[in-house]
Amino acid sequence: MADPAQFSTAPNSGQFQQRRRSAGPFWQDWIPALGVLRHYQVGWLRHDLAAGLALTAILVPVGIAYAEASGLPGIYGLYATIVPLLVYAVFGPSRILVLGPDSALVAVIAAVVVPLAAGNPDRAVALAGMMAVLAGLICALAGAARLGFVTELLAKPIRYGYMNGIALTVLISQLPKLFGFSVEGPGLLGEAWGFVQGVAAGKTNWVALAVGGGTLATILLLKRYRRLPGVLLAVVGATLVVGMFDLAARAGLAVLGPLPQGLPTFTVPAITLADLQPVFFGAIAAALVAFADTSVLSRTYAAKTDTVVNPNQEMVALGLTNLAAGFFQGFPICSSSSRTPVAEAAGAKTQLTGVVGALAIAALLVAAPNLLQNLPMTTLAAVVIASAISLFQVRDLRRIYRIQRWEFWLSMACFAGVALLGAIPGIGLAIVIAVIEFLWDGWRPHSAVLGRADGVKGYHDITRYPHARLIPGLVLFRWDAPLFFANAELFSNRVLDAVAASPTPVRWVVVAAEPVTSVDVTAADMLAELDEALYKAGVELCFAEMKDPVKDKLKRFGLFARFGENQFFPTIGEAVGTYVKTFNVNWIDWQERQAKREPSHD
Predict the structure, then answer these.
(1) Which residue positions in the chain have pLDDT lower than 70?
(2) CATH of the domain at 535
(3) Are residues 294 and 388 in the same domain?
(4) How many CB atoms lie within 10 A of CB 277?
């Protein structure tokens, strides 16, 4: 929870609070709930209580639905809701973020749990619990090591591709349940083909389809009315219809049945060594997805409320909530982009809203476990499908297609990887694509020979300014990337090509090095070899506008002494001026010509 003292709407309050927090005590940075208690206002209490009760109406059906979709008994979705809400209320830095089971993780959990559990619910619970424990450890350790920036390495097109793949996977997996039957098939294509075969074979339970389809239609139709609890109304309506007409007995409609009475208990999930590897890789995938979703949503609401959220603390809090979920019979969880707006719209002021929701669910399990016994499974499938539909990123992909075609196809590759290979391999593919994308920009960067265009200040790419004049005997070469092992040879070749293409014999090559932010050992050795090759051809290698940290690296590599301090210039203009003066080159700059034409006012 964010410190309520941060909730000021005064200008720049966020920046001020960030500075204040950085100098605060340990407990204020890492246990935000203590700060809330110190500054909690009595007037907030009624808002938090009302919002918590409103939130409960959504938490219950959604938690059960996501548990069933993940291959677990529905009750464990409520366990995975109660404990994380309480833990995040203590350690979470966000003001109103709601954590719990989420559709973004359904495919990741199911990809591990379903094949390994082989229909054994106790084994499924243990596998999902260990997955949550490992995911929690990964997030907590990464946050403590201040690695909260890692999810920023996944570009938007890659994230969109991943989410679209997850959405399609979840949607296809729930369609058979919506139609009232079940299928088994390897991966998305196998499930899709099994569904088609089931429908063709007449397996559809038309009563189940009517109830589930009605639920789905109600949720989607009421979605535009934010103040109406569409999910709650649809679930309650379907449950009442099934109970009133006894559809479970008359039409063979699958229902949830009575929930076990009682609260989650502390349990160490026990799995075999053979299961450890797939569970560990699943935990890595769950941790990445959970933090990516949570960090984006957390930043969004921090901006709306003018508060400050530390991404590292967010990662630690997410880790602790997953650890708690794993040890209290839950499964991996993350923030919810569907339930957080409910809390906001209901007037939530602090994380007390989540605490109220957790306690209300606990009261339901203790006092009224049979309340949801007539909840149809097809309705739960409809809830998950509605959530999956909201995950699809179509409008943003259209925009990317218009402005950057290759990034659109990058997103499509990630989408295909998730849909065809599965959620976990798909995440691995997304990470590989992200790294390749990053390396490609530096591997084959833009470079340019610079000239002086009349009427335009500075030196510019002669391909963009074809009428730019070149200084006789001087090559001005700009390299728009760091120099490292993957592009070192390309840099050397482009410099030599520029020298060979010069219309006049070259005396100097000046590298406009302002865009060069780093040099590694391979690139340093390349510079030494290039300098030697140019020297043999009677050409000096010089640098202009090189950053001081890059110069420091060249000093460590011994190159600064090799080149000599006089071959490093603070600006391109000074390098040109020194060259013209040294070699008495017949060169008059357009600004000098202009100055001579202007009359003197002395």
Answers:
(1) 1-29, 148-154, 226, 296, 300, 303-305, 338, 345-346, 423-424, 427, 591-602
(2) 3.30.750.24
(3) yes
(4) 9
Closest CA to 321 of 346, 286, 350: 286
Could you give the 3-state DSSP secondary structure of residue 590?
helix
* 241 and 288 assigned to the same domain: yes
- Calpha distance 538→516 (Å, rounded): 25
| Residue (of 80, 148, 66) closest to 108 by Cα position | 66
Token pair listed for 149: 């920036």
Position 386 in a domain = yes
With a CB cutoff of 8 Å and minimum separation 6, the contacts of 461 are 448, 449, 450, 478
What is this structure's pTM?
0.68
Closest C-alpha among 97, 119, 129, 150 to residue 332: 129
Say if CB 108 and CB 135 are below 8 A apart: no
Place of tokens 């789905």: 216
- Angle between helical axes of 75-91 and 352-367 (0-180°, round to 10): 150
Structural domain contains residue 457: yes
For residues 121 and 488, give the distance between their C-alpha atoms in angstroms, rounded to a whole number: 56
CA 85 → CA 59, 219, 299, 493, 534, distances in Å?
Answer: 11, 25, 19, 58, 66
- 547 in Cβ contact with 510 (< 8 Å): no
How far apart are the C-alpha atoms of 108 and 333, rounded to whole Å?
11
Number of domains in the chain: 2
CA 532 to chain centre: 46
Query: Does 500 lie in the same domain as 369?
Result: no
Measured between alpha carbons, how far is 168 from 177 in angstroms, rounded to an integer?
15
User: How far, in Å, CA of 477 to CA of 501, rounded?
Assistant: 12
Q: Domain check: are 429 and 463 in the same one? A: no
One domain, residues 380 and 420: yes
Residue 257 has a pLDDT of: 84
Q: Are residues 468 and 342 in the same domain?
A: no
One domain for residues 182 and 325: yes
Give the pLDDT confidence score for residue 573 in this predicted structure.
92
Q: Are residues 319 and 459 in the same domain?
A: no
Q: Is residue 296 part of a domain?
A: yes
Q: Could you give the CA distance from residue 423 to residue 429 in angstroms, rounded to a whole number? A: 10
* pLDDT at residue number 265: 93
DSSP letters for 196-243? HHHHHTT---HHHHHHHHHHHHHHHHHTT-TTS-HHHHHHHHHHHHHH
Closest by Cα among 42, 350, 59 to 232 = 59
Domain hosting residue 241, numbered range: 34-435
- 16: in domain: no
- 445 within 8 A of 428, measured Cβ to Cβ: no
- Picking from 435, 456, 472, the residue at the C-terminal end of a domain is 435
Per-residue CA distances from 224 to 50, 218, 382, 403, 509 (Å): 22, 11, 17, 29, 63
- Please report which helix (H) or strand (E) contains residue 530, including its range: helix 521-536
Rg of the chain (C-alpha set)? 31
Cβ within 8 Å of residue 282, ≥6 positions away: 108, 109, 111, 112, 131, 424
Position of tokens 């591709």?
A: 161
Query: What are 261-274's pLDDT values in tens digits?
Result: 889 999 999 999 99
Alpha-carbon distance of 602 to 178, in angstroms, equals 90
pLDDT score of 597: 61
**Which residue among 435, 461, 493 closes a domain?**
435
Give CA 73 to chain center in angstroms. Answer: 29
